[in-house]
Each structure stands twice: as C-alpha cells, then as structure tokens.
Amino acid sequence: MTSENVYIWVHLPDASEPIIAGRLEVTTGAAGSIGRFNYGQSYLQNPRAVPIDPVALPLRQGIQTFTSLNGYPGAILDAGPDAWGKRVIDRLYGKQNHPLGYLLLNDAGRSGCLSFSTKVDEPPASPHCHAFDLANLMSAAVAVETNQPVDQALLKALSPGSGGARPKCTMVENGVTWIAKFPSVDDRYISVPRLEHATMRLAQSCGIHTAETRLCEINGNDVCLIRRFDRVELEGNITRRGFLSARTVFYDDPGFAAVATGSYQRLSRWMPRFGATLEDQKQLYRRLVFNVVVRNDDDHELNHGLIHQRNDQFVLAPAYDLVPNLQTRPTNYHALLIGASGAGTVANLIDVAEDFALSKEQALSIVRDIEALVLNTWQDIFYEAGFGDEDIRKVESVFRPIPISQD
Ligand SMILES: Nc1ncnc2c1ncn2[C@@H]1O[C@H](COP(=O)(O)OP(=O)(O)OP(=O)(O)O)[C@@H](O)[C@H]1O
Ligand SMILES: [Mg+2]
User: Fold this and answer.
1) Best mutation site among 248, 303, 304, 323 for ligand 1, i.e. most ligand atoms within 8 A of its Cβ?
2) Do 248 and 223 share a domain, yes or no?
C-alpha cells in the first residue's frame, strides 16, 4: 500500500496570492486507488471561499472520496499538464510519477485557479520564468520535438502549464495572458496555427462563442495566440478563474466510470448541475453542429470545459482547439460521441436535439443555418486569415454538405 499527500491551494477570483483550501490523500493498493479530500477549517470559514468543484467537491466538512482517475478528483487533474507539458517537465526534471509528480512540477500557468504543495505551511512554488521572445521559444519547441539540447531557462519558459499535445507556451503581453501555439515539426501539409486561427474566426461568424485568437508571423512561421479565459487582469494583477474540463463533468457522475465514453448529450445534461444555463446548452449545440460541419472530429473531453463565474457557478467556457480534420471521409466519427455512434450526420444531430433543450425543428434549422454560413463564407474568412489559393485548394474538400445519415 502506498500513500501520497498533496495540499490544494486556491487563487480566489480577485486575489493574486493563493490560500490553502484542503488536503488530498491518495492510497493505492491491490484494489486500486482511493483519494480522500478534506477542506480545511480556515477555508470553510472564509466567506469568499469557492468550491474547487461544486458537484464533486462542495464546500462541506468531512472526507469526500474518489475512486476513478487514480483516486484524483477531476478538477485537480485539470491543473496538470498533458503530453506537451509532460514532455517539457521530463526534459527539465526527468520522468515523474503520474499524476502527482507532474501536478507539483507543472508551471504556474496551469489551467484554472489551483496550486499545490507537499507541506501545509509551504506555499506552492511559483517559479519565476524569464521572458523570452516568441522566436527563441519557437526554436526551443523545435529542439524539444527533435530531442536536441535546449537551454534550461528557455525550457522552463516553454512549460505551458495548460494541457494539450501540440507545442505551446504561455505568453503575457500588456497584462493579457495568451497560449502561444507553435507549428509542429510534423505539420508538413499546411500551417496548423493558421488553420486553427481561421477556423476559430469562422466559428465566431457562425455565432459560436470562442476564445479570441490572433496570428503572429515569426521568421516565416505562423504562431496562433489564443487569449486565456481563465486569466483575468484586475487592477494590474493577473487573477485566475476555476476551470473544469468535460472529463471532470463526466467523472463527477458516479456511474460514468462504467461507461467511460463521453458524449455531447451527456455534457449538456450534466452541466446545469454546475450552474450552466439553457443558453449554454443551446450554445453547446451550435458548437457541436459547427464541429460536424467543419469535420473537427478531435473534439475530445479535454477540448470542452466550464469556467467559474461566481460563487458555486460554472458556465460553458468559450470554444477552443477548433481544427478541421483534412482527411476526407464519407462520414466523420467524433471523439465526443453524438448519439451512440459519434457519426457526424444530419440525422444524428437531429436525434439528440432534446438533450440541448431544442425541438427537432429548431435543431434542423440550426444545422441548415450553420452549414449554409460555413459553406458560403469559409473562403472569404480563410483568405482574410492569410491563406493563399494553394492552401484553399488543400482544405476545400472539408467544406461540403454533411451526410444526411450514416452510410
Ligand atoms: N483560451 C483558453 N483559455 C484557457 N485555457 C485554454 C484555452 N485554450 C485551451 N485551453 C486549455 O489548454 C489545453 C490545451 O489547449 P489546446 O486544446 O488548444 O491544445 P492542443 O495541444 O491543440 O490540444 P490537443 O492535445 O487536443 O490537440 C486545453 O485542453 C484547455 O484545458
Ligand atoms: Mg486540445
């Protein structure tokens, strides 16, 4: 039997320093892992305290237990790195135990409002990173991808804190925090940062709430900057907002571990328990339809989330990581299921309408509107985003009507 302890700190919405919120103990034995979380008295007595997760970790006395996800509450895992961040941490400090080693060593730019320490009287480390320009960071990212040596200070600045597999880092400019997404050495066909920027713009024009994006050109390479919605500048300080991924929403349902396959309809049905509104459900439907129309089928459970609004309320976070799959298929199957099959078809989109507080007629009209908007405007928006004729030809097969039903 092994046991791990970690203290959880929260950056309250208007605070620049974190306060201690509680302790998680995870014990692992032959039968698996059990996590036991306990809020501290000082946090429970703080009138400004917000729950780490209003469903799985409401503000209350006593031990709250977790048996899925290695015994870790999903909300805590959301503050950890994913493939890219782990790769950078491995280069900096060597391989770590998942998830605790990576949670503790993750950059202060981690998603949401949590920080971690191993002692109750030891505030979380907040490593100071030198600022580097994007050109240096981009070259360092290539060196990480190709296993070349990288300066340690640059490597620290490349640790993004947030998740995802693609090369990226956090960048602060005039008090505004961005994720800078670099090209990858594997992108041989098209500029993926430009494709992401153009697709996010197209989504906005279809009434999808998205994170703001900007494109930067550095030595002939594109970098897509995405404004972080979990960082807010307040009177000269950068403050943080809680973030819960769709994975966390799913695992907060005790019955989910037996299914372990997330779907749009499950996200829609469950998110009102966190404070999301009917409007959020309808907005999620528009995002779902958009993802089907642009064949963004890598729309997995970490590519959607909720953002803290006030007290114990979390609402649907803006859309991010919208990128079409350029491989042409008769039907695209989505990572987050639509209905039971995940098939991106009109029939499937209409079948699930009621889970988004929509009638089938309303759903059909949204599908038809978004499809027409995308097909009529994508070229203008992609040209505006700086794509030339050759690139437009490379992506045009994406922009065709979606199948009516599964073949
Ligand atoms: N605008 C944003 N504000 C706050 N957090 C964000 C934002 N955009 C993305 N994130 C967080 O950062 C993570 C990584 O971002 P993103 O999904 O864009 O990266 P990626 O490397 O392309 O991911 P993937 O592995 O899905 O391809 C997301 O899962 C989300 O938790
Ligand atoms: Mg992603």
Assistant:
1) 303
2) no
